[in-house]
Amino acid sequence: MIGNLRTGMLGFGGGPSSIPLFQQEAVKKYKWMTEEEFADTLALANTMPGPIATKMAGYIGYRVGGIVGMINALVSSVLPTVIILISLLQVLQAYKDIPWVKHMSASIVPVVAVMLAQMTWEFVKKSGTTLGWKKAIILILTSFLLTEVTHLHPGILIMILIISVFIPFKRKENPS
């Protein structure tokens, strides 16, 4: 899968920074899934242990091509990263004290931040349109407080939300 190969080669900054690349390839370019399906896949992948990029590649590959697609996606997303990582780290280690190398390394961080911000804004807009803005803002703020203030792991928060969907709530009926 050329999409996972490209994501594996260009996914600087760790798994979370490759998520917008996966979204670009799987949703926008190849249309293997919708935005909603991608968001659901991302949420579920965050609840499971292991690297997010590997889980996303494996699932998307399986969805597109079954077991063979999954294996292809995993190899094409992991192998280039391993090869490039070893090569680049050797070069960076050899030249780490040169000022332009230090600057280059530091310059990657804001680019990844922008990519994550763009993806976040897309999810905020989608939440506002699907849940309604009031409910979306309440969930966003509550999630932010729980993860940043109380340091609740995002996977636990997502699992709580998934479980809460299956709990039946009795609604008060208005007497007419």
Q: Averaged pLDDT, please?
A: 85
Number of helices: 7
Helix/strand/pairing class, anyone? mainly alpha
Q: Radius of gyration in whole Å, from Cα?
A: 19 Å
Pick out the low-confidence regions.
Answer: none
Order of helices and strands: HHHHHHH
Which assembly state applies to the chains in this document? single chain
What is the approximate shape? globular
Biggest sheet character: none
The portion of residues forming beta strands comes to under 5%
Q: How many β-strands, per DSSP? A: 0
Helix content: over 70%
Q: How far is the first residue's CA from the last residue's CA? A: 59 Å
Write a brief structural summary.
The chain has 176 residues and is an all-alpha fold. Helices cover 82% and strands 0% of the residues.
Structural overview:
This protein is mostly helical and 176 residues long. It is 82% helix and 0% strand. The longest helix has 44 residues, at 52-95. The radius of gyration is 19 Å and the shape is globular. The termini are far apart.
Q: What's the arrangement of secondary structure elements?
A:
Elements lengths: L1 H9 L4 H15 L5 H13 L4 H44 L3 H33 L1 H17 L4 H13 L10
Helix pairs in contact: 1-2, 1-4, 2-4, 2-5, 3-4, 3-7, 5-6
List the keywords.
176 residues, mainly alpha
